[in-house]
Amino acid sequence: MKKRSKKYKAIRDRIEKKIAYTPEEVIAFIKANPSARFDETVELSVHLGLDLKKIQQPIRGSVNLPHGSGKQVKVLVFAQGENVEKAKNAGADYYGGNELIEKIKNGWLDFQAVVATPDMMKNIAVLGKILGPRGLMPNPKSGTVTFDIDKIVTELKKGRIEFKMDKDGNIHIPIGKVSFSSEQLLDNFYSALKAIIAAKPQGAKGVYIKSVYLSSTMGPSFPINITKIAQEIKSTMS
């Protein structure tokens, strides 16, 4: 069992049992009660109430956080010909073809996002077992397989986050740093939640979002009252 610090336990003990908070309350508390000396990440965790046995593919999607995640994202682009120069001009950190494939096969993973032009997909198929489990394999549905390199690289650099449901039905999205203003964190929170709701598969029955939590890197998780928030979000999306 992981040993927790006295500070963590003190904050945890202040969380009233069986009470769900508003995101405003939780963000205010996290900012006023830091759990570490570094600038912690604030994370949104959502548990989906889906029948996992009936889902053919995990829920996945992306969100453009209005204020970014606070994390520097290194973007790698697999391209060839004139598209290599496009990737360079777009601000990609790494760009190229087979030479990058070999580096990754040898253990190099110094990047947080991967884009590929469609004509490179057959080449990078060999990296599926390496990039796939890490959520880094380019995918047409997420927009990371494209010839529109400038657009996707810009989005990734500004704070576009890819998310994917894990085997237990959970989705985790970093929504910023404790140093962000409350307004910035709230904007990112609602944007992330909207993206998860928008990713709901057609025909899904029952309660889609079962529970929502907010936490900081070293702090405990706070349950969020999702009922009213979900209704408000759905009304803006209809």
Secondary structure layout plus pairing:
Elements: H1 6-13, H2 23-32, E1 41-48, E2 60-64, E3 75-78, H3 82-90, E4 94-96, H4 98-105, E5 113-116, H5 121-124, H6 128-131, H7 149-158, E6 160-164, E7 170-177, H8 182-198, E8 209-216, E9 222-223, H9 226-237
Parallel strand pairs: 3-4, 3-5
Antiparallel strand pairs: 1-7, 1-8, 2-6, 8-9
Provide structural commentary.
- The protein is built from 9 helices and 9 strands.
- It has helices at 6-13, 23-32, 82-90, 98-105, 121-124, 128-131, 149-158, 182-198, 226-237; strands at residues 41-48, 60-64, 75-78, 94-96, 113-116, 160-164, 170-177, 209-216, 222-223.
- The strands form 3 sheets. Strands 7-1-8-9 form a 4-stranded antiparallel beta sheet, with helices on one face. Strands 4-3-5 form a 3-stranded parallel beta sheet, sandwiched between helices.
- The protein is 34% helix and 20% strand.
- The mean pLDDT is 88.
- The radius of gyration is 19 Å and the shape is globular.
- The protein starts with 5 loop residues before the first helix and ends with a helix.
- The protein is of the alpha/beta class.
- α2 (23-32) crosses α8 and α8 crosses α9.
- The relative contact order is 0.25.
